[in-house]
Amino acid sequence: MYGTENLIISSPVMWIFFAVSAILGFLEYKFPRKWLWVIFNVLTQTAAAVALLFAGAALSEFLLYILAVLFIRLCYIMLERRKAV
Predict the structure, then answer these.
(1) Which of 4, 6, 28, 36 is the most buried (most CB within 10 A)?
(2) Secondary structure letter of residue 38 according to DSSP
(3) Mutual orientation of helices 59-84 and 34-55 as an angle, nearest 10°?
(4) What percentage of the chain has pLDDT greater than the value 90?
């Protein structure tokens, strides 16, 4: 579908999943009831994994997606720690 390009970078669907993950991370950072935002984030990541499977992604693309999402989560964790100090 996307040729030999990197699926994570070339697919607009993956960019939408990154944006939703960042928004949900921000909502988790700002508002109480963190468990609710974590559940929504888990459901979003599951949908992204299914989308990657249907797009025929390789293992390296899965790992790249997981690393990018973990980086987004790490940024909000660092912000929480900074706010607590």
Answers:
(1) 28
(2) H
(3) 160
(4) 25
Does the CA dihedral 34-37-41-43 come out positive or negative?
positive
For residues 48 and 45, what is the distance between their CA atoms, to the nearest angstrom?
A: 5
With a cut of 90, say whether residue 40 has pLDDT above it.
yes
Residue corresponding to tokens 């987004």 = 72
Alpha helices (runs of H) in 12-58, residue ranges in sequence order: 12-30, 34-55
Q: Which two tokens stand for residue 63?
A: 């790992």
- Residue 14: φ, ψ to 5°: -70, -35
| Alpha carbon distances (Å) from 9 to 16, 18, 34, 46, 83 | 11, 11, 29, 19, 32
Residue 36 has pLDDT above 60, yes or no: yes
CB 20 within 8 A of CB 40: no
Phi, psi torsion values for 56, nearest 5 degrees: 80, 40
